[in-house]
Amino acid sequence: MALPTYRKTTGREPRSGPSLVSTTLLITAPAVFAVAVLRPRSSR
């Protein structure tokens, strides 16, 4: 029984640039901060 020859997988090349997690944090962190700062304060 012949062994199969090794073939390089044909797939997408890895994307260069920030990862999906970094991009998501970069977009959501300022929005969460703005909501926290601009939220009306309860006056006691």
TrEMBL record:
It comes from the Bacteria. Keywords: Membrane, Transmembrane, Transmembrane helix. The chain crosses the membrane at residues 20-38. The keyword Membrane applies. This is Proline-rich protein.
